Amino acid sequence: MRRSRTSSTPTSSGRCCPPDQQNSQPRTSVAQGFGGPFARWFVGGTINASFQCLDRHVENGRGDRTAYLWEGEPGDTRTITYAELLEQLCRFANALRDLGVKKGDRVGIYIA
Predict the structure, then answer these.
(1) With contact defined as beta carbons under 8 Å apart, do 64 and 44 qualify?
(2) How far is it, in rounded angstroms, from Cα 7 to Cα 79?
(3) How many CA atoms lie within 13 A of 78 on its CB side?
(4) What helix, strand, coil percent values describe the chain, rounded to 5?
(5) 3-class DSSP state for residue 94?
(6) What phi and psi, each to the nearest 5 degrees, are found at residue 35?
(7) Minimal CB count within 10 Å: which of 23, 25, 64, 77?
(8) pTM for the whole thing?
(9) In whole angstroms, what is the distance from residue 92 CA to residue 40 CA?
C-alpha cells in the first residue's frame, strides 16, 4: 500500500514513503563530544522512522498484526493494525502536503 503523490491513501506496494526514502544513511561514528556539554550520537546518519516503524512491517506480511492497542476510560478498546496505522499516517501526511507543508518545515500539532 504505497501512497501516490495525488492520492490520500497508500497504493498496493505496501510503502508509505517513496523508495528513495526507505533506507537510512550509515553513520560515520557512534558518538562525539563527550568532553563538552553536548554529546552527538550516530553522527552523519539519517533514518526514516516511519519506514522503520510501519512500512517494513506491512511489506514483510505483518500488516494484520496489532500495532497499537487503545483502551479508554469506560472500558472502550480499539485495536489498530500496522496496515490500518500506515493508511492513516499516509492520509495525514498527504493532508499536510495538500496544506503546503514541505520537507524541512516545522509543524506544531495540537491535539485536544
Answers:
(1) no
(2) 25
(3) 7
(4) 30, 20, 50
(5) helix
(6) -75, -25
(7) 77
(8) 0.64
(9) 31
The alpha carbon of residue 58 and the mean position of all alpha carbons in its chain are separated, in whole angstroms, by 12
Q: Which of 52, 50, 64 is nearest to 96 (CA)?
A: 50
pLDDT-derived band of residue 101, with 50, 70 and 90 as boundaries? very high
Beta strands in 9-111 (DSSP E): 29-32, 40-43, 66-71, 77-81
DSSP element (H, E) containing 31? strand 29-32
- Give the whole-angstrom CA distance, residue 19 versus residue 67: 23
Nearest 10 degrees: CA dihedral of 79, 84, 86, 90? -130
Which amino acid does the sequence have at 22? Answer: Q
C-alpha cell at 33: 563530544
3-state SS assignment for residue 10: strand
For 13-24, write each residue's pLDDT tens digit.
445 555 555 556
Q: Per DSSP, what are the bridge partners of residue 2?
A: none
Residues 6+ apart with CB under 8 A from 83: 1, 58, 63, 64
